[in-house]
Amino acid sequence: MKIKHILLSVAATLASSQAFALTPVQIEAARAAGTLQQTWISGASAPTSLIYDGFALGCTAGTIAIHTTTNPSANPKPGSIGNFFAYSCTRAGVASVMYHTIDGGSLNAYRPHTVNAQLGRVSYVGTAANTGGPAQACTTTTTNYVEGLVSIPVYRSCTLASGANAANATYDFGPKKPAGGYSDVEAAAFPSAIGGGDVSSLGTESEAFVDQTFGVVVSTNLYRALQTAQGINTATDPDFDPLNAPNITSAQYTSIASQGGAYQNDWSPILGAPGNGKRIVLARRVDTSGSQAASNIHFLRNPCVGGFFNANLNPATVADSTSTFVVTEGSGTGNVKVALTTANNAGDFAIGVVSAENDWRIETSAGSAQYRFVKLDGVHPEAGSLQGNLPTPLATSPFYTARNSSVSGDYRFVMELRSFVANTADTFGALLIPAISATLGNPANCTNTPRGISISPLAGSSCLSADNTATPNNPGFTGVDAAAVPLPAFNEAVVAKGTKLGNNCRPSQMTQ
After folding, report:
1. C-alpha to C-alpha distances, 334 to 68, 338, 397, 416, nearest whole angstrom
2. Residues in Cβ contact with 215 at an 8 Å cutoff, skipping those fewer than 6 apart
3. What is the per-residue DSSP string for 188-244?
4. pLDDT tens string 453-511
């Protein structure tokens, strides 16, 4: 009987949260009354779900809603709803909206303020009935995001404000410029000519209190060729177990990815005779990408010398392509995965860098699934996760968290994220960004920390992921019949044992 009372209480709470979610009509009413507070942030994609959690933490329970320009799939978790979205809720009795743009990469946390870049965003959060709003505004609830036992409405926004329109005061009632945002690396890691450099006169750059793991990925055929060259029996590794992954050294990747690099004729320096005549495909990101900046820092020491920012080796670009060395530049991580898959299907060997939030096991498109992480300098980014020969259906499980080896300090290709608040930020944004950063470092639910993300020890958290006992209701088991394959309970450390103290050019210093 007691259990029934508890379930009824939960059901009542859920119904209440759905009934009082802030609606577009209520947002419109607040706008008309002059009480609506709005802000806009931009930049890196990796911490998207954590930023959502940070925004939600300050919301009155049950009032949050999600708005996206994409057609959301079932249970669209923040971080998988496209590049333009917004969140709304009631905060301390005030209707509030935060627009969020992750299109274009980390540098877009700074570019609207350094070079006046015009970014796109969700055009409008409100109702089409407002005569001052843009035409074709759409506020239909298309689905719900279920978080725990709470169902959160997801509204489809039918219009996307281009950069010029977002800055046009006559176009709609949203913010015209981001208040700031988040970046995989500090602004000084990007050239000032494209919007990076010294931003101290334009705003405040601070710790975001989370670290992002990056990894070297190769096309599947190259992965197998590397295994063979390194004496690893591919026949006993049908599931690409990270324990059996081949290795690439930082020096080898540098020799491929640097301008004028020594390994740009074929794969023979790494594979021996089987690599003779096999052209090299380097799938890199555009210069505005935080992943590309991370790669430049780690492998080329660019723009780092002795721990300070001062350019060293330059990265190879599309202009450096030859008949034996092909460079592609993608605006998004998806472009890198497609480039590796395309090369694989064509019989070429390809290599690149992506953040460890990516997981080939759960790719839904055959056109972007033929990539695998390799060991870097002898350590795999997924090492230390609950791994080994996991039984099928756990081939797609979240147990490869891609952070344990980074947390311990064994894996070194890790960047510390930064937050930025512009001097021109609205009052709401200037207060909200630091509040979200504090939440990033001290999350309410450590289990929500995404794959490839760890927490900086500077935040003072002792965060451990929740017990991952295999149960169907465990929110981590998306698409997995967990009950069929029970696993032992475990707790995973999420807080890193070292820090670069705010300078990604420095090696990590252990604090515990």
Report:
1. 19, 6, 21, 22
2. 353, 354, 355, 356, 373, 374, 376, 381, 402, 413
3. GGS-GGGT-S--TTTEEEEEEEEEEEEEEEEEHHHHHHHHHHTT--GGG-TT--GGG
4. 999 999 888 887 654 444 333 334 333 334 444 444 556 788 999 999 989 999 899 88
Tokens 């967990």 locate to 482
| Cα Rg of the chain, angstroms | 23
- Is residue 382 within 8 A of residue 402, CB to CB? The reply is yes
Q: What is the 3-state secondary structure (H, E, C) of 302-334?
A: CCEECCEECCCCCECCHHHCCCCEEEEEECCHH
User: Over 70: is that where the pLDDT of 128 sits?
Assistant: no
pLDDT tops 50 at residue 259:
yes
How far, in Å, are 262, 263, 351 from residue 268 at the CA level? 12, 9, 15
A 10 A CB-CB count for 337 gives 24
What pLDDT shows up at residue 135?
A: 55
Q: At what angle do helices 290-300 and 250-257 cross, to 10 degrees?
A: 110
Task: Give CA–CA dist 456/500, Å, rounded.
Answer: 9
Q: Residue 116 CB: number of other CB atoms within 10 A?
A: 10
CB 139 within 8 A of CB 162: no
Beta strands at 150-156 and 140-147: parallel, antiparallel or unpaired: antiparallel
pLDDT digits (tens, 9 = 90+) for 422-459: 999 999 999 999 999 999 998 887 877 888 999 999 98
Give yes or no for a contact between 103 and 73, defined as CB atoms under 8 angstroms apart: no
Four-CA torsion 126, 132, 137, 139, nearest 10 degrees: 20
CB count in 10 Å sphere of residue 49: 18
Q: Which two tokens stand for residue 29?
A: 């009413």
* Bridging pattern class, strands 247-248 and 375-376: parallel
Which DSSP string corresponds to 243-264? GG--EE-HHHHHHHHBTT-SS-
As a whole number of angstroms, the distance between CA 326 and CA 373 comes to 20
**C-alpha to C-alpha distance for 269 and 373, rounded to whole angstroms:** 20
Task: Count the residues in the chain.
Answer: 512
- For residue 81, what are its two tokens? 């709803």
420 in helix, strand or coil?
strand
The model's pTM: 0.87
Q: How far is CA 102 from CA 45, 57, 289, 487, in A?
A: 5, 21, 11, 36
Q: What would the two tokens of residue 163 be?
A: 């950069």
